[in-house]
């Protein structure tokens, strides 16, 4: 019992220090976010530290995060950062009961780390990006020094002293005032940050997309198989996958947005406004996008109807020629407003495929999550080498001269989409009702098209599935297969053949370095 009592007393004495540390970290974050809202919201400490963590995370770990948490990976990262910060705050607060200056210095070190992270970001605007972290750290250090002093001050005879040496009433009063002030600063910061994005929201709401000079043809009536559980042929915007490194989605004002085209082999550099792009003849195309982090049978693929400017026309007007015709550049590097860089082969962009700078998605301006006001699309290439969102700069260079973001992290320089097929229904470990079972799904090989899909039950022979109508070689193709199963457990496997005659390989590979390969299968039980 004596040991338990001693442990309780230790916890009770440490409690004010832990609370002081948590309030100091809360104050630091609130003040930092307020200063960031006044200067540049993207320079907030959680955002820059999170971005720095993403930049330095090994590719296999990133791949695991996307596979495990999906589009919630960034939320999980932010929660993890805050949880670690809270643990360190408790430790510094407890330390500050005996060593006030050391505890406060620890808070300042966190501020220095945040400032360094801000300055290391590819979209850093300079020394000003360090100010939010520095200001927050100074406020947090001051609060910790003050509260630690209150917590360790001797209790006066008329106060509620508990014999442990600290004045409960004075400490709790100071803590309450601190919490209220920090909460107000944080709320004001969020309000101001929201106000800064209002111009972008207003510009999107006011944008009226012009009709395309070259409209997409109507989707064939038979492109959608009539099997419950199959993906819709056109993916709604709200359901379209999102995989990127942006902890905070950029909100770009269409009125101030500019696109610069320059670099090696560019004889006529250009800078465009959004209005100038919209005044050009636009094309509308159905294009399926695929993320290189998509596992075999994974969800990171979607098909949309896109409106935009043909990229090849802009490049030719700038004097760009493909390497096969004497062009000096073999790589186009696209840069987004948040500093992301993606590299695409110039030869592919000028080979006649519908590479576009998209302004519209499924009949509306691009959503902010998907790159408003302009993003790049290249049919047949994985997104990490082609689908730059929030694009603001196009530089022509060579693969030997520059490695974009993902290539620096051991992903392949060139990444054409691999031929794949997915079973949408029945689901893995499903228990379909006895009787005929409809197996259905999608297959894709953008820019080559799908000519055949086959299904195998257990170790039996491959059987042809029924193909839905093909929209274009740049979209996925749906398929279905009527199966008369026997009772028991069965493994259903699918494979596709693309327009070149190549059959989807059975060799299983990881997503790194240039996309997963292998055949999708599901196990089901028939009662």
- Helix and strand pattern: HHHHHHHHEEHEEHEEHEEEEEEEEEEEE
Helix content: 25-40%
Give the CA-CA distance, first to last residue.
60 Å
Mean pLDDT: 91
Beta content: 15-25%
Strand sequence of the main sheet, in spatial order? Answer: 2-1-10-5-6
| Number of helices, where a helix is a run of at least 4 consecutive DSSP H or I residues | 11
Provide the gyration radius in Å. Answer: 28 Å
Which geometry do the CA atoms define?
A: globular
Q: Are there runs of 5+ residues with pLDDT below 50, and where?
A: 7-12, 157-166
Largest β-sheet summary:
5 strands, mixed
Total strands: 18
Secondary structural class: alpha+beta
In summary, what is this structure?
The protein has 527 residues and is of the alpha+beta class.
List keywords for this structure.
18 strands, 5-stranded mixed beta sheet, 527 residues, alpha+beta, 5-stranded antiparallel beta sheet
């Amino acid at each position: 019992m004596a040991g338990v009592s001693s442990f309780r007393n230790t916890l009770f004495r440490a409690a004010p220090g832990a609370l002081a540390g948590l309030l100091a970290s809360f104050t630091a974050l609130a003040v930092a976010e307020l200063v960031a809202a006044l200067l540049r919201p993207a320079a907030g400490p959680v955002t820059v530290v999170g971005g720095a963590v993403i930049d330095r995370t090994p590719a296999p770990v990133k791949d695991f995060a996307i596979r495990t948490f999906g589009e919630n990976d960034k939320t999980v990262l932010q929660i993890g950062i805050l949880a670690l910060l809270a643990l360190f705050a408790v430790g510094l607060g407890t330390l500050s009961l005996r060593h006030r200056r050391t505890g406060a210095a620890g808070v300042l070190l966190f501020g220095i780390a945040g400032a360094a992270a801000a300055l290391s970001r590819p979209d850093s605007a300079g020394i000003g990006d360090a100010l939010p972290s520095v200001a927050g750290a100074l406020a947090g250090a001051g609060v910790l020094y003050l509260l630690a002093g209150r917590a360790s001050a001797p209790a006066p005879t008329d106060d509620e002293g508990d014999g442990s040496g600290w004045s409960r009433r004075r400490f709790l009063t100071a803590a309450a005032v601190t919490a209220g002030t920090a909460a107000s600063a944080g709320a004001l910061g969020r309000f101001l940050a929201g106000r800064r994005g209002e111009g972008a929201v207003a510009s999107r709401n006011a944008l009226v997309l012009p009709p395309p000079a070259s409209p997409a043809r109507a989707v064939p009536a038979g492109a959608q198989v009539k099997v419950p559980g199959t993906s819709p042929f056109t993916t709604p915007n709200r359901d379209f996958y999102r995989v990127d490194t942006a902890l905070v989605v950029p909100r770009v004002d269409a009125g101030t947005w500019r696109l610069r085209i320059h670099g090696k082999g560019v004889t006529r550099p250009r800078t465009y406004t959004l209005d100038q792009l919209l005044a050009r003849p636009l094309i509308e195309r159905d294009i399926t996008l695929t993320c290189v982090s998509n596992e075999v049978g994974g969800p990171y693929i979607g098909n949309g109807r896109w409106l935009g400017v043909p990229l090849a026309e802009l490049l030719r007007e700038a004097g760009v020629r493909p390497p096969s015709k004497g062009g000096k550049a073999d790589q186009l590097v696209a840069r987004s407003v948040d500093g992301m860089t993606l590299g695409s082969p110039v030869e592919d962009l000028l080979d006649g495929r519908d590479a576009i700078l998209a302004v519209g998605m499924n009949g509306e301006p691009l959503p902010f999550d998907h790159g408003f006001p302009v993003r790049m699309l290249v049919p047949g290439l994985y997104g990490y080498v082609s689908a730059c969102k929030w694009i603001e700069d196009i530089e022509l260079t060579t693969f030997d001269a520059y490695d974009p973001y993902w290539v620096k992290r051991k992903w392949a320089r060139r990444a054409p989409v691999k031929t794949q097929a997915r079973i949408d229904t029945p689901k893995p470990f499903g228990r379909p009702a006895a009787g005929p079972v409809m197996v259905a799904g999608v297959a894709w090989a953008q820019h080559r098209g799908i000519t055949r899909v086959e299904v195998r039950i257990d170790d039996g022979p491959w059987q042809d599935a029924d193909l839905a109508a093909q929209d274009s070689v740049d979209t996925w193709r749906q398929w279905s297969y009527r199966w008369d199963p026997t009772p028991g457990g069965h493994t259903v496997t699918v494979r596709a053949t693309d327009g070149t005659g190549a059959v989807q390989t059975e060799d299983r590979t990881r997503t790194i370095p240039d996309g997963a390969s292998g055949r999708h299968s599901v196990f089901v039980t028939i009662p």
